[in-house]
Amino acid sequence: MSQTSTMAGASRVAATNAVQEARGPRPKPFFTPRKIIIYSLLVVFSMYYLFPLYVMFTTSLKSMPEIRFGNIFALPVAPNFDAWVKAWTSACTGLNCQGLAPGFWNSVKITIPSTIISIFIAAVNGYALINWRFKGSEIFFAILIFGSFIPYQVFLYPMVIIARELGIFGTLQAVIIVHTIFGMPILTLLFRNYFASLPQELFKAARVDGAGFWRIFFEIMLPMSLPIFVVALILQVTGIWNDFLFGVVFAGTQNYPMTVQLNNIVNSAQGTPEYNVNMAATVLTGLVPLAVYFVSGKWFVRGVAAGAVKG
Amino acid sequence: VDLEVTHWWTSAGEAAAVSEFAKVFEEQTGNTWVDSALAGSGTGANPVIISRIIGGDPMGATQMNTGRDAEELIKAGLMRDLTDVVADMNIDSFYVDESLLTPCRYEGGLYCLPVNIHSWDWLWLSTKAYTKIGQPVPKDWNEYVASWPALEEAGILPFGLATGWPFSGIPGVLMSGIGGSDLVLAINRDKDVEAVRGPQFRKVAEALDSLRKVISPETMVPSFGDVGNQLLEGTAAGNIHGDWLQGDLQVAGGVPGKDYECLPALGLGDKLTGGGDSFYFPKLPEGTDPAVLQAQADLARILISPEAQLKFNLVKGSMPIRTDIDLAAANPCMQKALGMLKNGLLPSGDFSLSSDTQQQFQDLNTEFLDDDSITVDDYIERYASILESDE
Amino acid sequence: MLKRILFNNLPAKIAALPMMVTVLVVFVGCTIWTIYYSFTNSKLLPTGKFVGFDQYERLFATSRWNVSVTNLIAYGAMSLVFTLVVGFILAVLIDQKIRFESAFRTIMLYPFALSFIVTGLVWQWIMNPTLGLQTTLRNLGWTNFSFDWIANPRMVLFALLIAGLWHGTGFCMVLMLAGLRGVDEEIWKAARIDGIPTWRTYVSIVLPMMRGVLVTALVIIGSGIVRLYDLVVALTNGGPGISSEVPAKYVFNYMFSGGNIGQGLAGATMMLLTVVIIMVPWAYLEFGGKGRRT
Amino acid sequence: MQNSVSIRDLSLNFGSVKVLEHLDLEIAQGEFIVLLGPSGCGKSTLLNCIAGLLDISDGQIFIGGRNVTWLEPKDRGIGMVFQSYALYPQMTVERNLSFGLRVAGMKKDEVEKRVARAAEILQIQPLLERKPANLSGGQRQRVAIGRALVRDVDVFLFDEPLSNLDAKLRSDLRVEIKRLHHRLKNTMIYVTHDQIEALTLADRIAVMKNGVIQQLADPHTIYNRPVNLYVAGFIGSPQMNMFTGTLSDSTFTTEDGIVIPVETYAFDTPATGSTAAVLGVRPEHIVLGDETAGMPFTIDVEIEIVEPMGSDTLAWTKIGGQAITFRCDSDVVIATGHKVRIGFDPARGSIFSAETTNRL
Amino acid sequence: MQNSVSIRDLSLNFGSVKVLEHLDLEIAQGEFIVLLGPSGCGKSTLLNCIAGLLDISDGQIFIGGRNVTWLEPKDRGIGMVFQSYALYPQMTVERNLSFGLRVAGMKKDEVEKRVARAAEILQIQPLLERKPANLSGGQRQRVAIGRALVRDVDVFLFDEPLSNLDAKLRSDLRVEIKRLHHRLKNTMIYVTHDQIEALTLADRIAVMKNGVIQQLADPHTIYNRPVNLYVAGFIGSPQMNMFTGTLSDSTFTTEDGIVIPVETYAFDTPATGSTAAVLGVRPEHIVLGDETAGMPFTIDVEIEIVEPMGSDTLAWTKIGGQAITFRCDSDVVIATGHKVRIGFDPARGSIFSAETTNRL
Ligand SMILES: Nc1ncnc2c1ncn2[C@@H]1O[C@H](COP(=O)(O)OP(=O)(O)OP(=O)(O)O)[C@@H](O)[C@H]1O
Ligand SMILES: Nc1ncnc2c1ncn2[C@@H]1O[C@H](COP(=O)(O)OP(=O)(O)OP(=O)(O)O)[C@@H](O)[C@H]1O
Ligand SMILES: [Mg+2]
Ligand SMILES: [Mg+2]
Predict the structure, then answer these.
(1) What is the average per-residue pLDDT within A187-209?
(2) Residues of chain E with pLDDT under 50
(3) Which end of chain D, N or C, is less packed with Cβ atoms under 10 Å?
């Protein structure tokens, strides 16, 4: 209240003086109410977003008694990485006390091929939908988008049967195919919108030059789609990494991803949970997608701007 | 050879118990026990196990919810018939109660083996809490209920409860403790709707009603292990929970009789409702190495062998399925239970009710606990109609 | 000529084969499968007989289902509104030529990288009345402080909302920011000359111009809401009581642990129907309207 | 002699929208044809049909005597230059030029030879290693032309190749394209909506409207003897002045009753009786002051607006109620409000039937 | 009389990039000033400074005698029209016009009166209920002007308002803007890079380059007496022909040794000794054939390229090694390869010092 009145006073003074003497840039006070509001809002929101991360980290560094009797705001009294070590190397699921480590490598094994293949197929779809339209292609696309609204559970059962009939149930292929299928709607939408925003004339020029479907795709379109690739990459890496359902159902025992291990550690149905280990495991599992975002967040924003806006 | 075994025994104590099985299996047969544990019990693990069996990627053996669910898998020819495997063991002779095996039988075949007996029917009481209010520790449910006002006055939680599934067993415990064996048999075995509408069941419903009045979501803790701590600290006075709570109490340093009391069947009845964890052995695909099939058979026999039973149940804190095992090492609570076991077992719901019905009962109980606008009468009526629709 | 029609564009058709197969087999085939079996009394395996609308009758007589639907509508409406509003406000704040823009942006976006399971766990931990924020603040002296939404049937949806918004608003913000940055600079200049206050320009001029972004955001948020499952399971598991149940959870429970596929699929079909009812007008506007625009 | 490109009865629909209908066009070897028309009239569509980038609905297309109706673009013997240049942004200029050749699997030294020749013709040798992003607008345009050049084809198609450039560059490149045509002597089909480009470049201009060719003739004829009102109005900037009125015998009477003698006019169709007609006179054919001496029609008017354009001056005035423009030398001093005498010879104008809009 | 807009010692930097430096400009009440220059020279920047949309680095701006340097755009008494129209797309035309007034809290009937007046002036009454998407380019432009009009301001700022339109519409709207200026008599500041617009509209043109005003004068002076080589080359299309060579006494000798007598030229700076210089002659001042009689300089040349433009014809040829263009009437028959005699009077040309590039 007093803030605003002094501001108003200041500008009145400025206004009277301004008549003859105004010269150069408009004077800008360091604190304007506008700036104060903007930054305080930003800080409040940031606290909301950061608080859980803080809780995760600090809790994972505390000992169990400290967790039970202390408060969740407090910094750890004697921070140690025991819980992390335990979560990574020795937390047990049934008889396996190998921690998250094997799951980590399984997740890598699932994520890399799934990401590559799903992005590739979606990119080809988007390209075909925009540049090589054929009768009915738009209808397929509409159904695809519509399909993205259907809860996964609806498909789970028949998909298991399909996978069984194909003889790939419980293999890496199965989980890769499933990720490709369920990543298809949103990725295809992204690529389609992006390719639609590229000049059609480039495509025509390449056709006159005699290049065919794949040649144009690989030599002309792909090199131009870096921004949208980054978006797709980030979405897929994080999505597939975070996936639990498909991994546990389709991947087969040998390939259980890290999230399954996390679930096992955290949801061990009985007994007193070790919250510090849980939190450490949680942070460890989230580390890869977090790293992806922290490293390439800027690209993500740019890519979204390039692709998604023309929805 | 490798034999994959799936189960949802993921906590520390359970895992230790499983490893006893594994050890015996590996020592005796020279095979490898490939352990696939899945957390989340019925809701988390069951779908995965079922989908793997349906999906044609079956494991060598698996823990599974007993009951009518498995029946369909059996019907579909996906489970191995164990009749021949255990033919020479004369299993009927040593199983504690033949009712345990009933759900495993289907059209003359034997498809699963219960490996332990668990009972929900325990009321756990905190010595410390009753010391605080200067009353003796109750001897049965009725005394316990009578002590609630004093507890509340002293700021002690009469009934500690964890969020989620721990509540699901309580109505059944009340039914057998308060309703008595006949009611349980009438409902769980005979599906007698009239019994539900009868006076005995009403008493059960009223007990549940009074219980919900002292439970508030606000005071719930995240896991039942935390309730154990509450009991030991004396911040909560009592809790109904399965026998596995004991393991946690012991780990936390509680001594039965001193720090806590246990009342089987709420101190009222003389029989426990029992259920067991069972193992199934899915049919392996055509062309599987005969050695694996042999390992499967070996495992089936080992699971119910006296040696494995003794080691497993001591660690797990559950009761063995065999009558011919000496459990002198068991603690006082367990001894009480073993005593009651001689009277036979009452069938728990999952023996004869479909899991669909069980799911509906659970939904109903959850809703009743939470929503005070559902009266006892409503409860009875809905309970009856669910039972009626069970096929 | 026929040959020409068939082989015209052949590589494109081959390349689009995975998509066509997916659409036909998975999205169409499995949907038909689902609808078909929702009319049977299948239990654990899809083997039941045809029973007409029995499963649906039971579905609508089940209070858990009805509560689930009500919850989804309430949560969905709030989530949609708040995600869009908060996303827009954040985007506007970020758009003010602030310092440390990319730091703020990253802070808002990173929750999107975490799974719902993790989101649920952390917030459950924070909001748990006996362990989290409430106890902590009480121990610090605010004995009357109360934050028990997660345990309070009337507030639990808001608890879900807090976690849901934490996870999703960052992404919405990025979309909106892209939209804001796409608005012609001259519009801003024109508004300044007209003397229109900044907030008014955002609300009355810029926001209505971001139709494309809004549609994209709506599709993404909407599909997330209909699918809402993991978060509920991890945060409240439907509780207290059944006060935070959602349809997807009902479907999943009955299909897999309840051993009543018919019932589960009936629920799934109802969800599908809802989506159709919502999507068809949108699809009509989006695709059908194109003819008129050009 | 065989025609280079011949289009017979071409039709094209987008769904139910008919863009081109029964269109015929014969283009001789080495001819420079410009397709001129307003936006949306179907120029690009026609060009894309010739290139094979659009599937036609009906008709046939022959290039160099071959029926190419169903051939792929690359097999039609055409090269194409696009409005937005459409250079492949991630490739160097050299790679841009050679892409098509490499796709066709041509030998490496032959590719090099062709690229070198095109680079020499277009004088872009120093740019070969650059990426398109590092080129100026004019340079990009040249590379785009080069891409057609290396393909060594008989027919060049241009789709508004200059419209993204500024005026100065546009007029420079116009001359370059003309020089290129003089040198290569290929057939060129050039789409534009800029009439100056059309007039300066074309051997023949096809003026299009709504997918129909209105007039196909050399620039001089198009400009001076437009076949209908549409062509007359579309060509010429500032626009031709149009008087509506009645034509009877050898006089034209405007709506305001002003009589203009038209004996000197050479009618295509002998005039009979009295018909509603439109008389069009180009601004530069209206003369001022002393020059009006001897003109069949003169009148005194008041100047409304003067637009000095450097080299000449445009003046706006009224004859009767009809606003007209005329052009005069920039040395002539006139200003708003001046009263002047102007006049013209109808022989240099055009007369159209008001009913059919065709030239009389 | 007090100046309407006066800019004193204005500087503007973007970070370390100096876009405008110590710029002064005085604009009289009711004057139509055009800022003309190539892309990136700082025209829009200057306009935005006047409007208050950019914070200046130094200097002062006065509008209507008030120092507005620190005032908000809305308080400066200006209206502005943008290149992209910048209409609010989801509002009707009527709302577009009235939005600013309403936000300012003006009474409803006053708002209506102003909108009605603007709509009447611009003849957009029938469009008031439409959305911008349903307007043609020219109509949108008019609405954009209307938005400035309703604000009832003294100074109108235009930032390339016509550059998104096609040529025909552009020339029509040009005349409309001129009419509007005649009618309203406000001060107008108009940014463009199109010299025809500048020449036809302006009372005075400010030719800019790299943020510096090169010449500020009326169109006739700018065209005929450019102060330096830059202005001479920038104005005029086709471009002025430039001969480089040496000036000594009253003759100009080109690099190729061709001697051009320049006695008739009126020097600004008396020529002394022999200096490197550039002689510029506009294409329309070069005459052909018989007209060369009496010209101080004549020469025989061969025509290289002919560009018929309808109303006139451009011809390209060479004098010595120097390519030159000249314009002749479209009736004159010339073609590539013709040998013709051409000539010009240096009095109508311009001579610049090669060193300072300034007019001599
Ligand atoms: N893919 C399409 N689907 C439907 N209609 C189209 C399509 N492409 C073009 N048209 C329509 O065909 C007509 C002719 O378009 P075309 O691009 O040939 O015009 P143009 O003469 O090249 O115009 P411009 O000068 O603007 O390039 C237009 O009315 C346009 O709306
Ligand atoms: N925000 C900015 N930051 C840095 N430099 C800028 C900015 N805006 C403009 N410039 C630079 O200032 C110079 C002048 O820009 P301005 O937009 O005024 O040019 P202009 O004369 O209007 O050109 P055009 O005809 O293309 O509109 C340019 O070199 C441009 O790169
Ligand atoms: Mg076109
Ligand atoms: Mg500009």
Answers:
(1) 86
(2) 1
(3) N
User: Can chain B be said to touch chain D, i.e. do they have 3 or more Cβ pairs within 8 angstroms?
Assistant: no
CA–CA separation, B298 and B296 (whole Å):
5
pTM of the model: 0.84
From residue B82, alpha-carbon distances to B1, B299, B306 in Å are 20, 11, 18
The finding on whether E16 has its CB within 6 A of some atom of ligand 2 is no
Q: Over chain B, what is the mean pLDDT?
A: 81
- How high does pLDDT run on average in chain C? 82
pLDDT band at B42 (very low <50, low <70, confident <90, very high): low
Of the pLDDT bands very low, low, confident and very high (cuts 50, 70, 90), residue A273 is: low
Is A281 an interface residue toward B (CB < 8 Å)?
no
Please indicate, yes or no, whether residues E114 and E159 belong to a single structural domain of this protein: yes
- Cα(E115) to ligand 4 centroid in Å equals 29
Tokens of E291: 């007209």
Decide whether any atom of ligand 2 lies within 6 Å of the E41 Cβ.
yes
Distance CA(E72)–CA(C189), nearest Å, equals 12
* E159 CA distance to ligand 4 middle (Å): 7
- H or E segment and range at residue A94: none
* D359 in any annotated domain: no
User: In B304-321, which positions are buried (b, 16+ CB within 10 angstroms) versus exposed (e)?
Assistant: beeebbbbbbbbbbbbbb
- Paired tokens of C155: 């507030």
Mean pLDDT along residues C30-48? 82
Is 50 exceeded by the pLDDT of residue C291? no
Please report whether residue D285 resides in a domain: yes
**Residues E153 and E37 grouped into a single domain:** yes
E315-345 exposure pattern, b = at least 16 Cβ within 10 A, e = fewer: bbbebeebebbbbbebeeebeeeeebbbbbb
Q: Whose CA is nearest to atom 22 of ligand 2?
A: E44
* A138 interfacial to chain D (CB closer than 8 Å): no
Instruction: With beta carbons less than 8 A apart as the criterion, state whether E119 and E43 touch.
Output: no
Q: Which of A164, A169, A268 sits opposite B39 (nearest CB)?
A: A268
- Do E122 and E162 belong together in one domain? yes
Instruction: Indicate the SS3 state at residue D303.
Output: strand
Q: How many of the other CB atoms lie within 10 Å of CB of B147? A: 22
pLDDT above 90 coverage of chain C, percent: 13
Q: Which of D233, D254, D271 is the last residue of a domain?
A: D233
Per-chain mean pLDDT for chain A: 80
Q: To which residue do tokens 């654990």 refer?
A: C44
Q: Which fold does the domain A101-308 belong to in CATH?
A: MetI-like fold (1.10.3720)
D253 in the same domain as D212: no
Q: Which residues contact D271 (CB under 8 A, 6 or more apart)?
A: D247, D248, D249, D250, D360
Give the integer Cα–Cα distance in Å for B164 and C239.
7
Phi, psi dihedral angles at A136 (to 5 degrees): 90, -5
Number of structural domains (chain D) is 2
D187 CA distance to ligand 3 centroid (A)? 20
Least confident of A189-203, B100-114, C133-147: C133-147
Please work out whether the CB of residue D39 comes within 6 Å of at least one atom of ligand 1. Answer: yes
Write out pLDDT tens, residues B130-150.
888 888 888 888 888 888 888
Measured CA to CA, the distance from residue A214 to residue A227 in angstroms comes to 20
Spacing, Cα B192 to ligand 2 middle (Å): 88
Nearest to C184 by CA among E85, D79, A156, B93: E85
Q: Do C241 and B218 touch (CB under 8 A)?
A: no
Interface test with A, best of C110, C270, C277 (most A CBs within 10 A): C110
The answer, for A117 touching chain D at a CB cutoff of 8 Å, is: no
Distance CA D130, CA D146 (A): 14
Range of the domain at D80: 3-233
Residue nearest (by alpha carbon) to ligand 1 atom 25: D39
- pLDDT level of residue A131 (50, 70, 90 thresholds): confident
